[in-house]
Design a protein that fits this description.
One of its GO terms (molecular function) is phosphoribosylglycinamide formyltransferase activity. The protein has about 200 residues and is of the alpha/beta class. Helices cover about 40% and strands about 20% of the residues. The chain has a seven-stranded mixed sheet, sandwiched between helices. It is globular.
């Protein structure tokens, strides 16, 4: 059984979808803890499912590195097989990424490598593209630059604003995330192989 810790910053809607999937006895992964970098509304979802939570407030640390050290200690308590970033609005420090790589994944509301960063939905609208998408990636030291595990296109409608487009991307993100976690748990995705440097 794959054990999973989820890190959030906000409402945790993607996380709730994963919790609902993992509540099925037939699902091959279990969420063992939910952490956040601030007081997050998503903790309520964890409580609904009886999942322990932990808080590592970013503003209480003198540096990103110091915050990452405490976050690493909290994760070590649960020692999950996989860490899922689900709306965590912080870049993890390289030391934490290196310690757990390649077993950290993230969802992103764009068809990477298109529109990386914190404003992927807005950037797609500004660019005037006819389609964007959703991606699930392995986290590396860059900004949404890790190996892609799954992605799917989502059309941009003429009437879309940032809210409506994001609301149509979210269900795709959730479905991709649940499928990727399932495939990691069953061995259909080998993270070590996916993240291995490519040789020619």
């Amino acid at each position: 059984m794959l054990t999973v810790a989820v890190l959030i910053s906000g409402t945790g809607s993607n996380m709730r979808a994963l919790l609902e999937a993992a509540a099925d006895p037939g699902f091959p992964a279990r969420v063992v803890a939910v952490g956040a970098d601030r007081e997050a509304d998503g903790f309520a979802h964890a409580e609904d499912f009886g999942i322990p939570t932990f808080l590592v407030p970013y503003g209480q640390f003198p540096s990103r590195e110091a915050w990452g050290e405490e976050l690493a200690r909290q994760l070590d308590v649960w020692n999950p097989d996989l860490v899922v970033l689900s709306g965590l609005m912080r870049l993890l420090p390289p030391a934490l990424v290196d310690a757990r790589a390649p077993h950290i994944i993230n969802t992103h509301p764009a068809y990477l490598p298109e529109f990386p960063g914190a404003h992927g939905v807005r950037d797609a609208l500004v660019a005037g593209v006819s389609q964007t998408g959703a991606s699930v990636i392995v986290v590396d030291d860059g900004v949404d630059s890790g190996p892609i595990l799954a992605q799917e296109r989502v059309p941009v409608l003429p009437s879309d604003d940032e809210h409506t487009l994001h609301e149509r991307i979210k269900p795709v993100e959730r479905r991709l995330l649940i499928d990727v976690v399932r495939r990691i748990a069953t061995g259909d995705i080998d993270l070590a192989a996916v993240a291995a440097p490519q040789t020619t």
